[in-house]
Amino acid sequence: MQDQRSKPKNPSELDLLRQRIIDLETENAEIPELGNKLLKFAEVEVEKKRLRQIKLIG
Questions:
Q1: Which DSSP string do the residues of the chain spell out, in sequence order?
Q2: Which residue has the higher pLDDT, 57 or 19?
């Protein structure tokens, strides 16, 4: 007689869990790239604001 711990899970459930792990790992890999894009966007916005101020003064 098998107990709950030694009984294998339904293969389709395992496949779903594996796919979810793959999806989460993919999302995690994108986080640094998105952070870099946000930083670049912020830098561009600051530069645009600076240029607008120069244009208003000059």
A1: ---TTTSPPPHHHHHHHHHHHHHHHHHHHHHHHHHHHHHHHHHHHHHHHHHHHHHHH-
A2: 19
Whole domain around residue 53: which residue ranges? 13-58
pLDDT beyond 70 at 43: yes
The domain total for the chain is: 1
φ, ψ for residue 6, nearest 5 deg: -90, -10
Q: What is the pLDDT of residues 2-40, one digit of tens each?
A: 555 666 567 799 999 999 999 999 999 999 999 999 999
Distance of CA 8 to the CA centre of its chain: 32
